[in-house]
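[job 4471] stage=fold_predict status=RUNNING
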Amino acid sequence: MDISLSEFYKAIHREHGEFDEILFATIGVSIIDGLEYLNCQDIVHRDVKPANIMVNKNGAVKLCDFGESRLRFKDEHFYANFNETPAGTLYYWPPERFSGQPVAGVASDVWSLGITLLEVGLGHVPFIDNFGNLIEDHVKLKSMIEDFDAKLIISKLNKDYEDATRTFLHLCLLPAPQRPSTFGRLQRSWYYSNTKEYVKSDDEVAKAFATIAKQLVSN
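[job 4471] inference complete, writing structure tokens
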């Protein structure tokens, strides 16, 4: 049995009050690898969020729910109707989805990845009111996404998170023209390369992740 990343991060925050940065990075690079694999198959997921990412008892991270996915080059209508189709979940939409600008599907998934990872680190969706309640009004949510201050929200992460982590998140949440439009570009970032090398060279990281995952999945 697997557990969703949504359930996973909530359990970690509930038990420890924070989400370990190494665990955060390990999950992040695993998601990037999965999305880049899809990209190489010319597939855009279009609904990246914690509920659509699964963790099994061995600590393997897997993407799921491809109901909104599209073939990037083989679907001739993809770019024409991307803005108009109500694909994905509003909380993870990039700002350009609301403005009618042309949308590159992969860049949209990159934004969704950034919101997903930010949510994991914070312990909640980053769109909440002053009382900690999730914004459900679509007009208010649209306004918050369009005016999203990534630097401000990222600053609310655990103070012990490294600047490299914050910089990587900011890269995922840049405005559309500057945001990476391929996951290959994210894989070429220092943050990704350093994390992959660290996890590869330290078996204890993978073992610790698997132990935590096994415990949570079993529960």
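[job 4471] summary: The mean pLDDT is 85.
[job 4471] exit 0
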